[in-house]
Structures are given as structure tokens and as C-alpha cells.
Amino acid sequence: MTQESTNPEAVGEAVRVRFAPSPTGYLHIGGARTALFNYLFARQCGGTLVLRIEDTDRERSTPEATQAILDGMRFLGLDWDEGPEVGGDYGPYFQSERDGLHRELVERLLAAGKAYHCFKTSEELVRLREEHRDAASFTAAVREDLDPAEVSSRLAAGERATVRFRVPEGETVIDDLVRGEVRVSNSDIEDFVIARADGSAVYNLAVVGDDNGMGITHVMRGEDHLSNTSKQLLLFEALGFSVPRYAHISLILAPGGGKLSKRHGAVSVTEYEEKGYLPEAMINFLARMGWSYDDKEEIFSLEDLVEKFSLDGVSNSGAVYDLKKLDHLGGHYMRQRPLEELVEMSLPFLLRSEQVQIDLEEVVSGGGGRERFEAIIALEQERINRLEELPERVGYYFEDPEQPDKGARKALRKKKDSVPLVERYGESLTAQFPDGWGSGDHEILEEHVKSFLEKEDAGLGDLAQPVRAVLTGRGATPGLFEVMAILGMETCLRRLGKLQEWVDKAVS
RNA sequence: GGCCCCAUCGUCUAGUCGGGCCUAGGACACCGGGUUUUCAUCCCGGCAACUGGGGUUCAAAUCCCCAUGGGGUCACCA
Question: What is the pTM of this model?
Fold first, then answer.
């Protein structure tokens, strides 16, 4: 078994790969990873990424799903060279529009005697399957050498017939780029249907026709297609087409093991987008599921991946996805993003929230509200993993907290004797800052508190803990003085005034 | 059930092709500790794996076989 290099030079032709989702739902994270791998492979070797929509399941395919898939790809930053909305020389790129092409192929196979009409009704087929457990005997039962004249007369009489491929004897070998040689005895492959009674092509034939028609050189797809591959190979040979290279990627498994489904939470790229995960985090996460570079690096940008991706690094065992890891990457990239961009991205998440009042106009126009808003985001930037976390964390900047949370109550109980100290602190603030302070003045506040505590001969903990609790209603927040700076003096003093009341409540 | 794929820490994985450098490396999670006004970040440390059994060999996580386990697939769906 020779595992050639995945280097396109060794292949001797321009690489053309495809991502071929069927638009029956949103872009699944497994599909997204397949798309990513195809994208990386194409970009790395200067090849072409084709996006083909396999919408031949008329019952389940929807335009909405197609749109969702395109949106998902764009969110991730995976652009395609040929396909919907961009066109190309190998179109059409919707499989349903290639029906004529597929029918021609069926005719060719029929004419060459490599396929035949099957008049068995579905009831008969159900029975045959029960009687014939294995492919070989099923084929023997279903395959009948009808007289051509009889076939045409029955067809002319309006009898319904599918077209089946006549599977030849022998063995089919898949030379898979990640799995090596996979051998399947043809006797394990039944004479499968390639055209429905209405003449339209069934999946395997359509794929072969399209992959060939689109000049695809490498087919990279999920392992669930491995069993289709032998059938497709048979078709390629029967049609005299040159066979593409194959690479079957292992599936992404649900946390408990097993196939990923809606039960396991978010499985569509759209859902992750809505949760506010950054696309670069998704890309990094997806790439590391089933692919690795070495024994050190974990962080990869899309650009890094284009450079470093290799089929050699693709593992052949299934990968259970771990949301904790995604969160970690989410936080990492959150801290990498320029503040300006985060501000823009945060807005939609915050505008949705009722407890956050943002003067959108002012933020967008860059007025004082903008400065304040940026300061808030800057503080949260290093603490969140996804944008969705924002609204519930920043409520206290916009409304006085009504209740202390658990951590705040604990702080209030522990420092209940600090009430007089805090009262004097409030007075000191008033005296020191007659005109208040700006949202970026935390250093001044910190200096002031130091000298205040020195005079009082008290520790910062005794003051900061209860102050944080009554100012924010929380036991944990960003640095107290940063928060106070943004809150402004008026708000701080007003909330500080409630300390005794809050302590009483917390203690009782 | 038939056929096919797979098998290293809880999870993602390096190492497996070209046996010795592996007393099995990294990351996430978890548990300690440090920094800090709390949280987060960051830093240090710890826990934790070659599925089992046979071979081959001076030597096996690495090669072979079997078992077991997991996954996929068996439509006039894609």
C-alpha cells in the first residue's frame, strides 16, 4: 500500500475539490469541518474549491437550507471558487439542474448492457429483501435477463421500472488517502438502483456524473460515505471516467459517543454564531478535531491552517467534540480581537437584552456613550468566551442592581462591620471629586483610595468587597476602580447609600 | 445480522508507516499553589492512557492474528 504525497505536484494536475452538502438542514459542524478541510486543501495547493448543492431530494431540500449553508460558510470565512452565487465554468452547481446530464449517463449504461430495467414493485422488493439476506443472493433474485423487446413493450405500456446497475464480479479497491486500501468484494454490493422510475438519477450516479463533469480530482468527505465509494468506483469504471483520489475523514461524535444529533445541543454553525463564538475560534476548534500538526501547537489561524494542513495529519479515528475546548478557544480569540471590532460585534447581542439600555446612536456616532461602551467591552473582553455572555454581565452599568447575588451576599456578611468605613469613603469621594470623574479615570480613583485607606489604617479588602457588592450586586466583577470609573460618581454614591440596607438583608 | 472503518490520559491528540531516543509528549477539563481588591488572564505544580490475549523479535504503544469494544453503512435519501 503506497501512500503518495498529498502534494498536488505529485498528482500532476490542478487540484479541484468540492464540498457537496444536501440542503436539508443547517450547516452541521461535521459538514463545516468537511468544508474546512476541503477549503484548506484547495487553498494550500492553489487548487479550486467547488461548492455543489445536492438538492435532488425534492421532499427535503429547501432554499432556506441552501441559504443557511452559504451563510454558515461565509461566517466561517470559507469562500468557494465555483458554485452558487459565484458561478464558474463547470456549472450548473445545483445538482437538480444537472438532471439531463445524469439521464444521458443512465442511457449510456443501459446501451452498453451495464445497467438494466427492473420492473419489480416495491412490495416485491420488500419480500425479496426478507428472503435474501446478503447482497449476492438479492442480486441473483432481482436481476433478470429480459428480452429487449419485452422491456420496450412493457415500458411502452406504461409499466414503471427503475434502472439498476449490473455489478460485475470481482473486487473493488478504494485507495484512500487517509485509510489506505479498502477492499470490498463486489459480491457484497447488490445491483443498486441508479435511476428512479421517473428516469431521474439516484445519488450515486449523480455524484459520479457531477464529480466527473466538474473535473474533481480529490473527494474529501465523511467516513459515512465510505460504503458509497465502492459503488461510485464501479460507476466511474463502467463509464470510462478517470477516478478521483479519495480521502474519508472520520466522523465527529457526540459527547456520549454515537452520532451527533439535536439532542446534544448546538450542532449547526448558525447556532454557534448566535451564541457569539468568534469564527476564528470555530475554525481552530474544527481543525483540531481529526487533524493535528505536531505535539505542541494548538492555536491555528485560518492562514496558519492553509499553510500547515496536510492529509498526513488527519487522524482516522472518530472525534468526540468537547465544548469546553471550544469555550477555551473562544476566550483566547476574544482577547485577540481588536476592541473596535468587538464593540461592533457586541452591539446586536446587547441591543437584544432588556436590562441593557444603549444609546445606539451615540455609540455608533462615537460620542461620549461610545467611549463608555468601549470601556465596558474592554473590561469584559478578557473574561468572556462568547458574546452571548455579555448582556447578563453588564446589567449593572445600566440599572441599579436590585439584589445581591450569592457572592455579593457573602461579601456583605463578611464585611458587615465595614459600613462606617464605606460611609466615610463616600464622603471622601464627594470631597475629593467635586466634579466627578471620567470613565477612564480608574487610576485616579485608585490613588485616592490608597491615601484614604492609609488615613483610615484599613485594608483594601475591607472596603472593596462591600463596595463591589453594593455597586454591582455581584461578588465578582472586573477591577473595582475600572467599574467605578465607568459607573460615574453620581451612580456610585447613590448605590453606596444603600449599603446598610443591603447588609441588613444579607445578614438576616 | 452482512459488509466496512477505527482503537494512546475524562476529551482532542503526538508517537505507529520506516520497531529501540517513550520511565509515552502537548492541549482542554479537573485538583493544588503563586500573582491580584473579587473574577478572569497569566505563571508554577499535580492527577491521568498504550482495550485484552496470543504471536514475530535481542527489543513492540509501534509489525501480524484473534477477541472485545466503538463507529459507519446496508432506500426508487443524499
Answer: 0.93
